Amino acid sequence: xxxxxxxxxxxxxxxxxxxxxxxxxMDLSLRDGHQSLFxxxxxxxxxxxxxxxxxxxxxxxxxxxxxxxFDTMHRFLNEDPWERLRTLKRYLKKTPFSxxxxxxxxxxxxxxxxxxxxxxxxxxxxxxxxxxxxxxxLNDYRNFETVVTQIKKSGKHFQGCxxxxxxxxxxxxxxxxxxxxxxxxxxxxxxxxxxxxxxDMAGLLSPYDAYELIKTMKETVSIPIHLxxxxxxxxxxxxxxxxxxxGVDIIDTCMTPYAYRTSHAAVEPLVMTLLGTNRxxxxxxxxxxxxxxxxxxxxxxxxxxxxxxSKISIIDINVLLHQTPGGMLSNLVNQLREMDxxxxxxxxxxxxxxxxxxxxxxxxxxxxxQIVGVQTVNNVLHDTDGERYxxxxxxxxDLCYGLYGKTATxxxxxxxxxxxxDYPRGEEPITCRPAEVLEPELEKAKEEVGNLAKDxxxxxxxxxxxxxxxxxxxWKYSISPVPDNVKPIxxxxxxxxxxxxxxxxxxxxxxxxxxxPAKSESSRTFNVFVDNEYFSVDVDPVGGxxxxxxxxxxxxxxxxxPAAAAAAPSPAPPASPExxxxxxxxxxxLLAPMPGMIxxxxxxxxxxxxxxxxxxxxxxxKMENALPAPCDxxxxxxxxxxxxxxxxxxxxxxxx
Length: 656
Ligand code: CO
Fold this sequence. Notes:
CATH class of the largest domain: Alpha Beta
Number of strands: 19
Oligomer: single chain
Number of helices: 22
Helix content: 25-40%
Bound molecules: cobalt (II) ion
Shape: globular
Number of domains: 3
Largest sheet: 8 strands, parallel, barrel
């Protein structure tokens, strides 16, 4: 590298020459970092301790919002997403904010109407957003039109993404080749993009492909090129370096505690790598270390129980094998595990490329990764030798209709026909910009939510998340009590829990006398939180090794006990947490084929149904599944309500 300067004897602080063309860095710790590693559970109160320090680093921008944060915050953290933006703005005064915007999908999982999309962007800008990193899961830029118009109107930075995906092990093939990406870059340039992001959400971009891609892209367009490449497969540090050699302008990284695994490479090694070169970031590594220290000691202990430590490797080799996002693969594994079908994983790996091909070789990114993933699992679990696509999700039907946009290749006509049979909007797919067929929805949402919404931001939240958004607004305005499992945990609680677990592991909680009763008075109960689940764990000093009984209290999903507790011999399984179907009216039952959340019932008790009519819409893995009546008859009983979490096998209704 000709840019290299002699580093010997250089004093890091004093003699560091200013770089001619410093690499700009965007930090992702506060959004993609915790989204990737800790299921987006990072709380605003845990960002504040580092915010002012991070403002001093010199980041090009800090990603603070968007992606899954909006959903997760109101659903699992009892936090108003809008408020985070305003709060962080008070601490991060200099550094621009960036958000991940799913174009016409906003921060939800379907295309919303133009009026809602415009209102959302307007409100995000008003609340403090500066850079709108915009992507469309299909790279169909017609889905950019409405939001980009508003981004420009608000005077903000429009960063257009190209979702990087592949069908071959390397850049190339019939669909996602160099030409494809250069055409997309030109499209974005002519749409008025202020910068282009190559969004490599799965960590598929290999270093030499990155070099070729970025070098030619730099020769093709003059706006800055920004690289977003997840670490998942292990290539991204190398990819960053080759991208920098090819002239990339901006790189995405995380602070070390939020880095690697399915997240992004850390900033600190990159700073040292570029030190003294003409692409030196100019960052003060000591300041970065200060931020790290706080995150490591005061923040991350609260989240370490969310870190997936089931694997020792920090690299997901499956990504290299399957060219599929790691997050999607782990979703598939979780989904199969919840359905006691983990033995079918190899079939899922085989079915996945077939489904993707049938659905037009779409890129795999939220929400298309879920669309392809859930349909793949449905096929593996429900298809028979005689019939494929037995259970088609609502989202696949929408995709086949054209509601997400244009797919990279044509959808398999047979699958499309089957998906669109009795589709409410019509059996003939559309070819226009999807939002053109969507009726305005903001006023409707306003009416529906009524007085529960106090301002437009509440309405926009409700419009995108009617079920969980309503629940949140009820917590926010003290109409219903805030459940314990959405409340924050303190460092004191973490320390207490760690202390008990440490003692249990060390055997210090063992009662030494042999004549202790089965459950002694010195038995100790403590709470362990796993994800949104709460375990009540009894540490009971009966002779021999420490016995730890672990019993999930809610929700009723089978979940492995925390590692430390699992290390102890497991007693008899706890009482089944599943709600016992109360054997009401006799008749044919509709059972939940998978765990999930009830979105809504299309029928009520007393309604007559025909076999195949949709009775209930179940949300599983963020996909809505319309569940059909198994027979003709009358609805005799319904045990659940909108918003209820249900287990696999729950009786959703009785038809007699
Ligand atoms: Co990402």
